[in-house]
Automatic annotation (TrEMBL):
Superkingdom of origin organism: Bacteria
Keywords: Lyase, Pyridoxal phosphate, Transferase
Reactions it catalyzes: (sulfur carrier)-H + L-cysteine = (sulfur carrier)-SH + L-alanine
Alphabetical list of PROSITE patterns matching this protein: AA_TRANSFER_CLASS_5
Lineage: Bacteria, Pseudomonadati, Pseudomonadota, Betaproteobacteria, Burkholderiales
Function: Catalyzes the removal of elemental sulfur and selenium atoms from L-cysteine, L-cystine, L-selenocysteine, and L-selenocystine to produce L-alanine.
Protein name: Cysteine desulfurase
């Protein structure tokens, strides 16, 4: 049965089996980072137990095995994103580093004074600040697609911002602050019609729905392993092959060169050109096993389960007096962001913590979203495949307790 299956899935995550402050741990901070199934933890451990060596340089047995594991991880990600070839996958420390890679390599080579970069009003700081830095260096200009009261992109405004000066559109697939799922394929088609490239920040998308970069037709797609049940310090950039091949290096060092002399160095082919230094080899092994784990469950089934819990949670929160959901888009994923009359999100988070419930409170690295809604921050419950309706029930009970303590709104 589905219920039995969910119990099994929760058991795959040892950290969730503990009590916190004498209460069952209710982990609802998956947008910040997800917990890791045993198989991921075991894979990293086994790498260090049996396979550890540096990659690409060794002639010896262990080095070859480590290289094979690392390159198998690349192929696993290729399949996961349905990229056309594994050379299109560059390993990074995560989303932030992948966006910086594109900004410093592609951006520096392709942006000039007066060129326009379109972002949206719901971007995470990591998809704003690298472009600001690049704009300062190149004279490019940032344009921002506004969001409506439900937290959806204003697509008419987007259309009117696009033009012959647009070089890049950098957009979240799913908003970490609102849960909005953006119409990426449509955004890409319109950008390509004016000759602009599109970078998609998939940090909050890859764990919640199947992603197909060829169907989206995007030029760059980035994500973090740690939000996908994988290790911290892992992630990837997908970049269209011809684009990546034309991009200059951004970090110099070992592993990214072909030849080095004091007069001149030549660079390795892609993707090695963008992987200077010893990478997180064990982390890549762990990330590959995390992807295998979600693939075995099925992204479609994970999405269906999370959508059911999201719908249950939305209904439950809407019944709480004095609660306002921030982000009520027609198409949402995994995120319940809200404010309460008379209770600061941080105070709510602290009271929920005494009940063993982990949420996030604050601006969620998306300050412009908070400004747009005229609030200092929100309380955010973010879901993963192991969350259930009973986690929502615990959250709602915790909110009622906070309201009782603050002598706020009476329950209806
Ligand atoms: N973009 C979005 C939408 C995010 O939610 C996050 C993480 N909160 C990031 C980018 C940055 O990811 P990381 O810190 O793993 O680099």
């Amino acid at each position: 049965s589905l219920a039995a299956e969910r119990v099994q899935q929760a058991q795959d995550f040892p950290i969730l089996q503990q009590s916190v402050r004498g209460k069952r741990l209710v982990y609802l901070d998956n947008g910040a980072t997800t917990q890791k199934p045993s198989v991921v933890i075991e894979t990293e451990r086994n790498f260090y137990l049996n396979d550890n060596a540096n990659i690409h340089r060794g002639v010896h047995w262990l080095s070859q095995r480590a290289t094979d594991i690392y390159e198998a991880g690349r192929e696993q990600i290729r399949g996961f994103l349905n990229a056309a070839r594994s050379e299109e996958i560059v390993f990074t420390r995560g989303t932030t580093e992948a966006i910086n890679l594109v900004a410093y390599s592609w951006g520096r080579a392709n942006l000039a004074s007066g060129d326009e970069i379109i972002l949206s009003g719901m971007e995470h700081h990591s998809n704003i600040v690298p472009w600001q830095l690049m704009a300062e260096q190149t004279g490019a200009v940032l344009k921002v697609v506004p969001i409506n009261d439900r937290g959806e992109l204003d697509m008419d405004a987007y259309r009117s911002l696009l033009g012959s000066k647009t070089r890049l559109v950098a957009i979240a697939h799913v908003s970490n602050a609102l849960g909005t799922v953006n119409p990426v394929a449509d955004i890409v088609a319109q950008a390509h019609a004016v000759g602009a490239k599109v970078l998609v920040d998939g940090a909050q998308a890859v764990a919640h729905q199947a992603v197909d970069v060829q169907a989206l037709d995007c030029d760059f797609y980035v994500f973090s392993g740690h939000k996908l049940y994988g290790p911290t310090g892992t992630g990837a950039l997908y970049a269209r092959y011809e684009l990546l091949r034309a991009m200059p290096p951004w970090q110099g060092g070992g592993d990214m060169i072909r030849t080095v002399s004091f007069e001149r160095s030549t660079y390795a082919d892609v993707p090695q050109r963008f992987e200077a230094g010893t990478p997180n080899i064990a982390g890549v092994a762990g990330l590959a096993s995390a992807i295998a784990y979600v693939q075995a469950l099925g992204m479609g089934r994970i999405a269906a389960h999370e959508q059911a819990v999201l719908a249950y949670g939305t209904q439950a929160l809407l019944r709480v007096p004095g609660l306002r959901l921030i982000g009520t888009a027609a198409h949402k994923a995994a995120i319940l962001s809200f404010v309460l009359d008379g209770i600061h999100p941080h105070d709510l988070g602290t009271i929920l913590d005494t009940e063993g419930i982990a949420i996030r409170a604050g601006h969620h690295c998306a300050m412009p979203v908070m400004t747009r809604f005229g609030i200092p921050g929100t309380a955010r419950a973010s879901l993963a495949l192991y969350n259930t309706e009973s986690d929502i029930d615990a959250l709602v009970a915790g909110i009622h307790k906070a309201q009782d303590m603050f002598g706020g709104k009476k329950r209806s």
